[in-house]
C-alpha cells in the first residue's frame, strides 16, 4: 500500500471525534485507507444488497451488531442510518466509534451536516498526489517557497498527465485508457443514475466530453448547453452531478479587483487528468504533446496537485484565479493571511520572457499585498528569474 498523506490526520481526528467522515471519488482508496488506519475496527459495506436492506429496514438492529468501533463503507447509500448514528453517539460518546466513508459528496455531507454537526470530522481523499506516488514528503505550508519545494522525479511529465493518479492504475498496472473507460461506464454512470434521473445517457456522455474540451476555460453554461443540445437548467443540474461525484471542480475567480473590472465566472477543471485524456480520445503520450489542449491539461494537472496538497493536509484550498476584462490573468492565487501568492502555469519546457508578463502585471497592481511569485513550467530546473521563483512541473 502506498502511504497516504491524510493518514495521520484521519487517526488524529478519530482520537477526538466519535464519528469521522471520509469522502472522495470512487476508487480513490477510501476503503483501503480506512481499513489500514483502523485495523481493529469491524468493517461493513453498504454496497452489499442484503446489508443495505438490513440497515435501511432495521437501523437500530443493524448498529446493535457492533459492540465496538466500526468502519461503515458507502454510508450515503442509507442516509437515514446517520440519524441513528447520531442517537448512538449521543448516548455513548466514544472517540473513533464510527468511521464513515462515502463517494457521493453532496448526499453524504448534507446528511452529516444535518445530523452529526459537532460530532464528526470531515476529510476528503482524492486520488494519489504525485508526491504520494513517488513517496516524497509534502510540507504543510501555503507558501510557494515550501509548497513547490520538491526537486526530483522519476516520472515523465506528459505520461503522468495521461496516466492520472487513480490507485488501481498504479497498484494493478492496468492500462489507463482501459481503466478510465471502464470507470466512466461502471461508476460515473451508476452514480449519475443515483443522483439525478437522466434519461439520455448518451447526451450526458457528450456533455462530459464537452467539459473535458473546456478544461482551464471560463465556465459558460449557456454555450455548453447549446453545444450539447440540452436546456441550460439541465446543464446546470448535470454540472452539479459532476461536482458531487468528484469528477470536476470549479475554481472561483479572485474577489479583489485592484480598481479593475474582473471576470466573475469560475474556471472548469477535472480532478484527474487521466479521465480527461480518455474523454478527449487521447491514448498515447505523443497525442498529448500534439494536442491543442496540451497547455490546458498541463494547467489542470498543476491546479489539481495544488488542491490535493491542501486537502491532504486537511485544509480547504485557499486558491482562486485572477483575470480582468482586458485579458490580464494569473492562473492561481493562493491567499494566506494578508498575502497573495501569484502562480503562473506554462506548459513549455523552455522559458520565454513573455511568460512572466501576467505575474509582473499582478505584482504591480497588488503592491504590498503580494507575496513571492512562482512560475511552474514543464522543464526540469528550478531557479530564480526576474524576481520570480521558477519551478519544474514536479515541484508540487
Task: Describe this protein's structure.
The structure is a single chain. The chain is α/β, with parallel strands linked by helices and 396 residues long. It folds into 2 domains: 7-124, 3-Layer(aba) Sandwich (Rossmann fold); 130-395, no CATH class. It has helices at 7-14, 30-37, 49-57, 59-64, 81-91, 105-115, 130-133, 144-147, 157-163, 167-171, 176-195, 201-212, 221-228, 232-244, 273-279, 285-289, 294-311, 357-366, and strands at 19-23, 42-45, 70-73, 98-102, 120-124, 248-251, 267-270, 319-323, 329-336, 339-346, 373-377, 383-385, 388-392. It has a 6-stranded mixed beta sheet, sandwiched between helices. Strands 2-3-4-1-5 form a 5-stranded parallel beta sheet, sandwiched between helices. The chain has a two-stranded antiparallel ribbon with strand order 6-7. α11 (176-195) packs across α15 (273-279). The protein is globular, with a radius of gyration of 22 Å. The protein starts with 6 loop residues before the first helix and ends with a strand. The model has no long low-confidence stretch (mean pLDDT 89).
Strand content: 15-25%
Can you count the helices? 18
Number of domains: 2
Low-confidence stretches are none
**Overall pLDDT metric:** 89
What's the N-to-C terminus distance?
22 Å
